[in-house]
Amino acid sequence: MRKKTVARNTRLVPQRPVKKARFFSRGQPKNIYRRKRFGGGKKSWLRLILIPLGFLGLAGLCLGLVFLYHQLLTCSLFCIKDIRNIEIEGTHRLTTEVVLHLAKLSPDTNLLAVRPGQVERTLLAHPWIARAELTRKWPSRLHLKIQEREPVALVQLGEELYYVGRQGNLFKPMSPGDPHNFPVITGLAPAHFHFSEGAMPEILAQAFQLLEVLKGASPPLNLENISEIHADLERGFSIYANGLGGALDFGFKDYSQKLHKFAQIWPALTQKGYAARIGRINLDYPQRVLVTLKGMEEK
């Protein structure tokens, strides 16, 4: 037989689930369809109004900036009043008028309209100008610093004479009116002047070394009195000087010692009247000097 179960009394009270309270109550739920239909339409109209207004404001700002820039360009405060307000430094061969014409600078030029980089590139296109630096000094002054090229000699290539710089670069053919008081180097080819930086041909480097030694020499072999330096790839250099009828053979080395030997024998040659009759003086011997007179054998 089954036992009957008897309900026992309990003190537990049945609990109902408690709903969590919302901190930000939104009230009664709205009709989602109506919200999308009417609320979305308001935002679209708002966008249609704000976007054109934004473009109009941006266009107005741009026009204002353009007007302001135009006013600054025409403002007399930033204009060069006088040509003396353009300082030019470093010119020796080029005149102030030529530099100003090349740079397109003049009175009434506005500093805001000047482009220093463009002016410098224009000046560097001139063959005599190696460097150019333009600085604006507000409100109405300019400072232009120029470094001109310094030729060390003239080089004959074919029928043309070219100026050569200290780095071995040919930068300009000689034109009428150009300075010509430089020794002329002959015997070299165009290939000797086409080289990468730091790879100067030996014959060209030796020519520059000879020019440096001749700077400190005494007449008639001082650099100002030298008319031609002929380069021979096998025999070396031969010098032709004003006042000497013949050539002086220097070879490839010991230029200072050979100048010293020439200085020792030159007074004796002039005293004996041989100076005008010299055909050639070979200094490229360690212990002696070979003098060839015109119409005579070597003595």
* SS class: alpha/beta
> Largest sheet, described in full?
9 strands, mixed
Averaged pLDDT = 83
Helix content: 25-40%
Spatial order of strands in the largest sheet: 6-5-4-7-8-9-10-11-12
CATH architecture of the largest domain: 3-Layer(aba) Sandwich
Name of the top-level CATH class of the largest domain = Alpha Beta
CATH-level-4 superfamily name of the largest domain: Cell division protein FtsQ/DivIB
How far is the first residue's CA from the last residue's CA? Answer: 163 Å
Instruction: From the alpha carbons, calculate the radius of gyration and give it in angstroms.
Output: 45 Å
CATH topology of the largest domain: Rossmann fold
State the total count of DSSP E strands: 12
- Domain unit count: 2
The number of helical segments is 5
Strand content: 15-25%
Instruction: Categorize the overall geometry.
Output: elongated
Low-confidence stretches: none
Pattern of helices and strands: HEHHEEEEEEHEEEHEE
Architecture overview:
The chain is α/β, with parallel strands linked by helices. It has 2 domains: 78-148, Ubiquitin-like (UB roll); 153-293, Rossmann fold. The chain is 30% helix and 22% strand. It is built from 5 helices and 12 strands. The chain has helices spanning 32-73, 96-103, 116-124, 202-215, 255-271, and strands spanning 86-89, 129-137, 141-148, 153-157, 160-164, 170-173, 184-186, 226-232, 236-241, 247-251, 278-282, 290-293. The chain has a 9-stranded mixed sheet with strand order 6-5-4-7-8-9-10-11-12, with no helix packed on it. A hairpin with a 2-residue loop joins strand 4 and strand 5 (160-164). The mean pLDDT is 83.
